[in-house]
Specification:
Farnesyl Diphosphate Synthase; globular; mainly alpha; about 325 residues; Prenyltransferase; transmembrane
Amino acid sequence: MSADSSTPSSTKQSSTVYDWLKLMRLPTVFTALSNVLCGFFISTTDRDLPALAARPEFWLLLLSSAGLYLGGMVLNDVFDAELDSRERPERPIPSGRISHKHATVFGVMLVATGLIAAFAADVVSKTQNTSFQIASVLAAAVVLYDSVLKSTIAGPLGMGACRFLNIMLGASCCGSWDDVWSTPQLAVATALAVYVIGVTWFARNEAGNSSRSGLMAGLSVVIVGLCIDGWVALQDLQPQSPATGALIALGLIGANVIFRAAKAISANQPVLLQKTVGFMLLHIIFLDATMTFCMTGSGRMAAAVVVLVIPATLMKRVIPMS
């Protein structure tokens, strides 16, 4: 019997653990975890890292973010299966190594895990469903982006909103609703959202022939996001304050990102553009660590965030980030 022509792949192959990890784009999850750590750390006045790590909601929020993020990555490929069959036939679904049905079920299960973990975080922290409410909006934003917004002009805004909510998810157990939606986490989340809008804009056509003007526009928005972080740091600038170190770090991050992006724009080659997008995504961890240090003055907290770059860097050598 011939394969259904409506399916992305006409060949059935057995899947491996690597195929599932590739489907989830596993290295990128560490950028989501760094968002939660940043939001959690900067929204509390407690600077005792071991004590914070001993709180159950700390781990539940990390699990929630991981579930929502990885579920979104899987559902992204579910909705893109037909497009990937033409542009990226090596991906797990169009290649036939993972079935469309199994990927759909897996993605939904991951999102459900994220929502359950957020609900559990509310229970143990007694924060009146704040975490679950933010996680629910985040889950809706992820599915909306994957299914509808991604191919529209609103796509970058949708992705930026997801990252904004992820920072706020990390801050969701800090107290009352008003406590959660306050500075500094609100300002830091806004800066990250703008940065990610720029990265997403830059990545719009990473698999094809990209417009240099579009790439330049995306990079410009990335720079605006970095400048917002710089403005936030300036509000706390004093002699020998953590903000001084944060501003230096932001300058180095900005210079590094601009240099790599400029090279990619000049070459305008899909492979180099994809690597540059991965590079920009990886720098989200450095941004989160920088703002954590800026707001808390704790080197240990900043180190707890930046250490996530190690597994992300090692994994991206074998598992593509985009």
